[in-house]
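User: Okay, second chain of the day. Same drill as before: sequence in, structure tokens out.
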Amino acid sequence: MEKFQKEVLEKISNFSPESILEAGCGEGFIISQLESGLKVGIDISCDAIKWADEHWEGTHFLCGDIFHLPFKNNSFDLVLSLEVLEHLEEPEKALNELKRVAGKEIIISVPHEPYFRLGNFFRGKYLTHLGNHPEHIQQFTGKKFRKFMGSGFKKFEVLGSFPWLIGIGYL
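Assistant: Same drill. Structure tokens below.
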């Protein structure tokens, strides 16, 4: 996980964004580490947002829904959504909303299947689900994630950070 976070933070620093939104920020561990003018974290878990607000300074946190982000079009230079889409019934709808509020780039990560699931299984996790996290309702293979990222961007790239895939979309 540490290697994954380091790679994501490195990619973000290459962009030098003046404003960042992290949709699905949880307790704010990633967004709180970023150096930027405006940093906003949003998550559906109001408990996670409350915790983040109490522990991190310099970031505005709010409880909200990734499908209905309360921001104008092109509000943020960079939009992040890390380890979120695999939990959603309609990841395409979420991606469209992320693109709507993004001005320049989007960075998304998902577990790389079947490797994520196999890793869990061999570590003895989620055995009754054959290694699948019980909250993961979407499975992204490399091919499926490339197809998913291929729509609506001027250009995109998909990188690996075993056992995750990181997609970068340029608007």
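The chain has a mean pLDDT of 92.

User: Thanks, on to the next one.
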